[in-house]
Specification:
GO molecular function: ATP binding; protein kinase activity
Structural class: alpha+beta
Oligomer: single chain
Protein name: Protein kinase domain-containing protein
Helix content: 25-40%
Number of strands: 12
Number of helices: 26
Length: 813
């Protein structure tokens, strides 16, 4: 116990050699006989302030007062009082003369007079900042007088310092003492070290050393006077020279003048209590004070108040003093977000205000908080981070992205929210260049493989665009294995026309990565098919792409003829308009209905929102009678419905838009997919072929099924009728094949009467996976009555009375 008390009174160290801080350059001003130095910690280099006071001997009155200040500063803690870190005393000898020095180490601060000159605020912004500072000092003085029953006795401009966050703090506790009001007749000084205070800062009773009058007055009387002196020095811009100068009120704001006069009342009992000054003054009611006060008591606010405040904060911050915003509000906001007290809208405000910081300050003050927020489970926080990733993405180092950011961002690829999946996809444009090849090949490409068969058409399209944009960041082996398969097998066969257009554009943008064999055998055959695509924009892009790749082959031929065959890469400048690949095709935010109900865009690069088309059984599409008939020996991938979102983790080696399925042992995605060869039938294709060959009641008279065509009987024969052009994204419950009346159903002419013991045929998409899609047009046994067929896809079966001449003819197609 004795050692503890000795340490409190004498200091917490044994000498200057044991001081774990480095003393730097001094400031030009400090209170009393103290010297204020800049300093740093020897352990971590953090900034501190070091105050030193020297005396000729141990009995020096200045040293005694200094020890009192050290003791008081150690024991009194308040947010608006200077924070104590360390203290020590050192004794040195100059010849035969001993010199004792007291050192106090505190948080890094600067004298208020120097900080005001450095900030250079003027007008309203200066008044708002002064109001905030005075508000803080008034709270510190009120804490000492009303809560602790202490008298500071030395409140002035010199006793106030400013922190790095521009907060004002009270220090210089050398004169501080307890207020003893019990023994009013005592002549013992209430302030033993009052002689250190200049006469111009003392009220009349203190100048006269009328201790009896002081004991009869309230405990705040002396410090209220000192607060009035501080206000005068602050607004006049000059150090107080004489007490009479306090009567000059020309520089005092009018809203503060009544309180200023009450603080300097000649009668101690009538002086304004500092606590009342905080509550009553109109001067402290301004935007800056209200904003900082709200941030400091954020935990006490409800969610509605927080949301309202943070939505207004970005616009409000532009009206506040810029240094206060950057050094005070930004750290407060970052801390609130990190510890969960701030709402998600605070992130947008933080990013806007932090955009005013320098790159170094942003990396030091804001970036660590942002990295920690990626681990948040709050979906609103994650959305905000992804929406604004372009503002801070460049400041993230490759190591931080690969090890700390990407593992959390990648969870958005499989999120149930399409909006979050899309934002995660778009964020890769910023993050992918910073990822390692191991992460790209082992994780990112597998997620993109799943997104390329996502249920949202816009996500499928943007996935293709992203692959084209990040192709330069893939290694050569990955590009060879992935790009062509992703763009041809997936994108060019998508049921969504902008996705097909994006595939063409991606192939053109990455043309430098393909050799002549790949162009001739894998790329051109797939693009040429799209020159007769139902969508005009896809056709236009297909013709441009064909011209580009043919030109590349011609150049190779010319080089071969001249004997120069070196260099397999024949990359040419992209086709006109190819720069649009850098932009996203569309946003799935505009998708209001189901993915299958969305109408295609006019262009893959169009910025117009997708038009939501209501799909029901009564909607129709007109089929042009002059449409060319295209008969393929293999299924038409554009006519197949899009499968649901995949659940496996294999890459592009899996289901290709519900048609082409790779073997399950593929590891990296698009391996070994050769669209030009005749592959082994996939399970889905095998089911269709089995349905075509399955024997029915009249196996010998079954007409040959042709994918993409429909049968119709018109008077004297059966004619092939082409399916409607792909004006709908996916024909799932979307529209009828043709428009006609119920009495003229084209399917009724070849439908036999329904059997008595069978149920109506249901050919909706909601059927199980084992249903045969071709049963709708399969002829039943002649001994029974066949079920009626629906007039269009997704429409229920309807029985119809047999008509004259409506029996099916066993005529091959």
């Amino acid at each position: 116990m004795f050692k503890f008390l000795k340490g409190v009174v004498g200091g917490s160290g044994t000498g200057i050699k044991d001081l774990p801080y480095n003393i730097g350059e001094p400031y030009s001003s400090a209170w009393g006989s103290w010297t204020h130095f800049r300093g740093t910690s020897k352990d971590d280099g953090s900034l501190v302030s070091i105050f030193s006071l020297s005396g000729s001997n141990a009995q020096d009155g200045h040293l005694a007062a200094g020890r009192n200040g050290v003791k008081r500063l150690r024991t009194v803690r308040h947010p608006n009082i200077l924070s104590f870190l360390h203290s020590t005393e050192a004794e040195t000898f100059d010849g035969s003369t001993a010199k004792v020095t007291i050192y106090i180490v505190t948080e890094p601060v600067m004298p208020l007079s120097e900080k005001i000159k450095e900030l250079g605020l003027e007008g309203t912004q200066r008044d708002e900042y002064y109001a905030w500072g005075l508000h803080q000092i008034a709270k510190a003085v009120s804490f000492l007088n009303n809560d602790c029953k202490l008298v500071h006795g030395n409140v002035s401009l010199a006793s106030v310092v400013v922190t790095q966050t521009l907060d004002w703090k009270l220090h210089a506790f050398d004169v501080l003492s307890e207020f003893d009001s019990n023994n009013e007749a005592s002549t013992v000084p209430v302030l033993p070290y009052a002689w250190l205070v200049g006469a111009q800062y003392k009220p009349t009773e203190l100048v006269n050393s009328d201790w009896a009058a002081i004991r009869k007055s309230p405990p705040w009387a002396i410090d209220s006077w000192g607060l009035g002196c501080l206000i005068h020095e602050l607004f006049s811009g000059m150090k107080l020279g004489r007490t009479e100068e306090l009567k000059n009120t020309a520089s005092i704001p009018k809203s503060l003048l009544p309180d200023y006069q009450r603080l300097l009342s000649a009668m101690p009992s009538r002086r304004l209590n500092t606590s009342k000054l905080i509550e009553n003054s109109e001067y402290f009611q301004n935007k800056l004070v209200d904003t900082i006060h709200f941030m400091e008591i954020l935990n006490l606010k409800d969610s509605v108040e927080k949301d309202t405040f943070f939505r207004k904060l970005p616009n409000l911050a532009e009206q506040l003093p810029r240094p206060i915003v950057l050094k005070k509000l930004v750290p407060l906001l970052a801390s609130s977000l990190e510890f969960g007290s701030a709402a998600a809208p605070a992130l947008a405000a933080l990013l806007k205000m932090s955009s005013w910081l320098s790159t170094e300050e942003f990396s030091a003050k804001v970036l660590p908080t942002i990295v920690k927020l990626f681990a948040s489970n709050d979906r609103a926080i994650r959305v905000g981070l992804l929406q604004h990733i372009d503002q801070y993405g460049e400041s993230l180092s490759a190591q931080i992205v690969d090890e700390q950011v990407y593992p959390h961002v990648a969870t958005g690829f499989s999120d149930t929210s399409a909006f979050l999946r899309e934002l995660t996809l778009k964020s890769m444009l910023t993050l992918a260049p910073k990822l390692s090849q191991r992460t790209i090949s082992g994780s990112l490409l597998k997620y993109l493989s799943k997104l390329q068969v996502d249920e949202e058409p816009a996500i499928r399209t943007n996935t293709t665009i992203l692959l084209g944009n990040i192709a330069s960041h893939l290694n050569e082996g990955t590009r060879k294995r992935v790009l062509i398969n992703a763009f041809t097998v997936r994108a060019l066969r998508d049921t969504f026309s902008p996705a097909r257009g994006a595939g063409i554009m991606a192939l053109c943008a990455t043309s430098a990565y393909y050799d002549v064999n790949e162009i001739a055998t894998r790329i051109l055959p797939n693009i040429v098919v799209l020159t007769i695509d139902p969508d005009s924009d896809v056709r236009s892009k297909a013709f441009q792409a064909v011209d580009q790749f043919l030109q590349m082959l011609k150049q190779f031929q010319e080089k071969a003829n001249s004997g120069d065959t070196g260099g397999a890469g024949l990359g040419l400048p992209s086709i006109p308009g190819n720069a649009s690949l850098l932009g996203w095709a569309m946003s799935s935010l505009t998708l209001k209905g189901k993915p299958s109900e969305q109408a295609p865009l006019a262009s893959v690069t169009s910025s117009a929102p997708l038009t939501s088309t209501s799909s029901n059984a009564s909607s129709v599409m007109d089929t042009p009678s002059t449409a060319p008939i295209r008969v393929n020996s293999t299924p038409d991938f554009a006519d197949q419905p899009l499968p649901p979102s995949p659940t496996s983790t294999d890459g592009w080696g899996e289901l290709e838009n519900g048609i082409h399925e790779e073997h399950e042992n593929d590891k990296d995605g698009w391996d070994d997919i050769e669209p030009l060869e005749e592959p082994k039938p996939s399970p889905s294709l095998a089911n269709i072929q089995a349905a075509q060959k399955r024997p029915v009641s009249q196996p010998a008279s079954q007409p040959k099924q042709v994918f993409g065509l429909a049968f119709s009987k018109s008077f004297n024969g059966i004619f092939l009728i082409p399916l409607p052009p792909a004006t709908s994204l996916r024909p799932k419950n979307a529209a009828k094949v043709t428009k006609h009346d119920e009495d003229d159903d084209l399917w009724d002419s070849i439908a036999a009467p329904a059997p008595k013991t069978s149920k109506p045929l249901n050919v909706r998409r909601a059927a199980s996976a084992d249903d045969d899609l071709w049963n709708a047009i399969a002829a039943p046994a002649p001994a029974t009555r066949a079920q009626p067929l629906s007039s269009g896809r997704g429409r229920g079966a309807k029985s119809a009375a047999p008509r004259l001449g409506a029996q099916r003819k066993n005529q091959p197609s």
